[in-house]
Every structure is written in C-alpha cells, then in structure tokens.
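Input set for joint prediction.
Command: fold jointly, output tokens.
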Amino acid sequence: GDQVEQSPSALSLHEGTGSALRCNFTTTMRAVQWFRKNSRGSLINLFYLASGTKENGRLKSAFDSKERYSTLHIRDAQLEDSGTYFCAAEATNTGKLTFGDGTVLTVKP
Amino acid sequence: GPKVLQIPSHQIIDMGQMVTLNCDPVSNHLYFYWYKQILGQQMEFLVNFYNGKVMEKSKLFKDQFSVERPDGSYFTLKIQPTALEDSAVYFCASSPTGGAPQDTQYFGPGTRLLVL
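tokens >
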C-alpha cells in the first residue's frame, strides 16, 4: 500500500537553531498535511499543501509531488516547539490520509 | 481555528458489548473521517463519509463497524460487538470538501477506547 517514510524519528535542537523534517512517499501523492501533536494528544494543523511551499512564522513547508517528498523546516526553535510532528499525505481524491510515524522534537535551552 | 469535538474522551467496555463513539465535526464541513491509532503504532485510516454514504473504507473497517450521521447530528462510529483488538484511540476528522482539490482535515482530540 501507500507508504509514508518520515525522518528523523527523533530530533534534538537548542533554542534558536533550526532543522528540517522530511517525508518521502512511495507513490505520487496529491497533497500533504503537517501536524503537531500537543501535550493533550490533539493534532494541531500546521500546513496543507497541494504543491509548492508555504510559510507561517518560523515554519516553512514544501511539497514536491513529482519527486515524492515533503519537508518541514523549523527555524529559531523555541521551547514550546517541542512535541511530535507528523506528515500525512493523500494519494487519491477521497481524502484518505496516510500518516508518517512522526518525529519527536525536543528543544533544549 | 475550527474545532472537532469527540465524546466521550475515554471509554472502557467489556468485550462483546456495543460502543458508539461520537464526533461533532466543524459546522459546514461536508466530509467526515475516522482514524484508528493503536498504542505505539501509526495512525491509520478507517473510513470516510459524505452525503450519507461511505466513500472509502480500509481493511481495518470490519463488518462490526458502522458509521452514520443522522439528521446532521453527531457523526458516529459504532462497533458491535467489540473485540479486544478494537482497543485504540479513535480520531474523528472533518473537511470542507473531499473532492479535488482536497482540503485540510481537522482532527478531534480522540476517544480512548479500552476493551476488556
């Protein structure tokens, strides 16, 4: 079936630094969503992309359907950015999302 | 932002009994989804629902599962009878549209179901 390979599984950053998360897809996807799971376990929407890039504050995401990947860049990381980040992608037009395994981000002082 | 509510937040039930999980989707959304996450595993798609019908379901959506949204009220997932392997967190989601182009799905906080 459709696979979403998310990396890294865990990431540790010092405050003020940045890094990128990546999802590779085994098939062509129509769109991708990025989420952060908060301390209560709720999924917070970060981005929805059908193509190109989007930016929101210190977060920026890109999606390349042809090359089968999406990235989430975090810059100037803050302590409150800590949490688990997920990508999820749609292969068809039915809205079915296939999730990655998540990246546990820890931001340290 | 838009909020999806789920009731109850936790449910403990004996194997073989029926359980109904309730979802209050974002108003004016037309597409509804259920996902299942077993502890320590990936979130997985169960079913999506539009205009009173199931549009797509996964192999996880067993015959014991059913969904409905009677008269625009809660979007429900019913499991009858429950089995031990149904223990998981069930997430509801809704989106304004489901056809091309796709749109953002908003997720509820989940219902933690434990089947004993």
